[in-house]
Amino acid sequence: MTIRFVTSNEGKVREAREYLTDDVEQIDYDYTEIQSDDLAEIAVAGAKEAFEETGRDDPVLVDDAGLFVDALGGFPGPYSSYAEDTVGVERVWNLVEQEENRRAKFRCVVAYYDGDEARTFEGAVPGRIVAPRGDGGFGYDPIFEHEGATMAEMSTERKNAVSHRGRALAKFADWLAEN
Ligand SMILES: O=c1[nH]c(=O)c2ncn([C@@H]3O[C@H](COP(=O)(O)OP(=O)(O)OP(=O)(O)O)[C@@H](O)[C@H]3O)c2[nH]1
Ligand SMILES: [Mg+2]
């Protein structure tokens, strides 16, 4: 089977390919990202729209992810992509720099839709916000530290083993194998 991963983010696709045995094809269709504080709601709406608009053949996968910073009341959360493009990762670090509590988590929901019932799989990873280190990964990886290393200092394999996306993809892969 081919899974059509609908995303403009090559980093997400790279990570999914490490995880899934099925073919993963990247579809660069720009679905509407609805405004919601619920990642699953955003991912499911995107998966349904993408499936309907891109041929209704192979199933689609949509991944909605975000960085949730405790001291900032969960910001940037579902708006992480927008914040990355506007404020930038460096200045998100600056917002947290003077905080005593630097705890944060990454959350990811992947939604799978084949025209029948949408399925969602979630993953989260705890960490802390630090000054940027490392040049691997993408997005907020350089400022997100987990067990001593930033996500940008990890190989794709290592990042997948601990990351929000890896955890969500593991659940998805288990479900796929059974269905
Ligand atoms: O350091 C990171 N490590 C990750 O593993 C990770 N996963 C997502 N993100 C960032 O969080 C936002 C998600 O937004 P998002 O889900 O809308 O994705 P996106 O806009 O990049 O692609 P698309 O799939 O929507 O096309 C974007 O700013 C991503 O850069 C990450 N940052
Ligand atoms: Mg996006």
From TrEMBL:
<keyword id="KW-0460">Magnesium</keyword>
<protein>
    <recommendedName>
        <fullName>dITP/XTP pyrophosphatase</fullName>
        <ecNumber>3.6.1.66</ecNumber>
    </recommendedName>
</protein>
<dbReference type="GO" id="GO:0009146">
    <property type="term" value="P:purine nucleoside triphosphate catabolic process"/>
</dbReference>
<dbReference type="GO" id="GO:0036222">
    <property type="term" value="F:XTP diphosphatase activity"/>
</dbReference>
<feature type="active site" description="Proton acceptor">
    <location>
        <position position="64"/>
    </location>
</feature>
<feature type="binding site">
    <location>
        <begin position="138"/>
        <end position="141"/>
    </location>
    <ligand>
        <name>substrate</name>
    </ligand>
</feature>
<dbReference type="GO" id="GO:0036220">
    <property type="term" value="F:ITP diphosphatase activity"/>
</dbReference>
<keyword id="KW-0546">Nucleotide metabolism</keyword>
<dbReference type="GO" id="GO:0000166">
    <property type="term" value="F:nucleotide binding"/>
</dbReference>
<comment type="function">
    <text>Pyrophosphatase that catalyzes the hydrolysis of nucleoside triphosphates to their monophosphate derivatives, with a high preference for the non-canonical purine nucleotides XTP (xanthosine triphosphate), dITP (deoxyinosine triphosphate) and ITP. Seems to function as a house-cleaning enzyme that removes non-canonical purine nucleotides from the nucleotide pool, thus preventing their incorporation into DNA/RNA and avoiding chromosomal lesions.</text>
</comment>
<comment type="similarity">
    <text>Belongs to the HAM1 NTPase family.</text>
</comment>
<dbReference type="GO" id="GO:0009117">
    <property type="term" value="P:nucleotide metabolic process"/>
</dbReference>
<keyword id="KW-0547">Nucleotide-binding</keyword>
<feature type="binding site">
    <location>
        <begin position="164"/>
        <end position="165"/>
    </location>
    <ligand>
        <name>substrate</name>
    </ligand>
</feature>
<dbReference type="GO" id="GO:0035870">
    <property type="term" value="F:dITP diphosphatase activity"/>
</dbReference>
<feature type="binding site">
    <location>
        <position position="159"/>
    </location>
    <ligand>
        <name>substrate</name>
    </ligand>
</feature>
<feature type="binding site">
    <location>
        <position position="65"/>
    </location>
    <ligand>
        <name>substrate</name>
    </ligand>
</feature>
<feature type="binding site">
    <location>
        <begin position="7"/>
        <end position="12"/>
    </location>
    <ligand>
        <name>substrate</name>
    </ligand>
</feature>
<dbReference type="GO" id="GO:0017111">
    <property type="term" value="F:ribonucleoside triphosphate phosphatase activity"/>
</dbReference>
<feature type="binding site">
    <location>
        <position position="33"/>
    </location>
    <ligand>
        <name>Mg(2+)</name>
    </ligand>
</feature>
<dbReference type="GO" id="GO:0046872">
    <property type="term" value="F:metal ion binding"/>
</dbReference>
<dbReference type="GO" id="GO:0005737">
    <property type="term" value="C:cytoplasm"/>
</dbReference>
<keyword id="KW-0479">Metal-binding</keyword>
<dbReference type="InterPro" id="IPR020922">
    <property type="entry name" value="dITP/XTP_pyrophosphatase"/>
</dbReference>
<dbReference type="Pfam" id="PF01725">
    <property type="entry name" value="Ham1p_like"/>
</dbReference>
<dbReference type="InterPro" id="IPR029001">
    <property type="entry name" value="ITPase-like_fam"/>
</dbReference>
<dbReference type="InterPro" id="IPR002637">
    <property type="entry name" value="RdgB/HAM1"/>
</dbReference>
<comment type="subunit">
    <text>Homodimer.</text>
</comment>
<feature type="binding site">
    <location>
        <position position="64"/>
    </location>
    <ligand>
        <name>Mg(2+)</name>
    </ligand>
</feature>
<keyword id="KW-0378">Hydrolase</keyword>
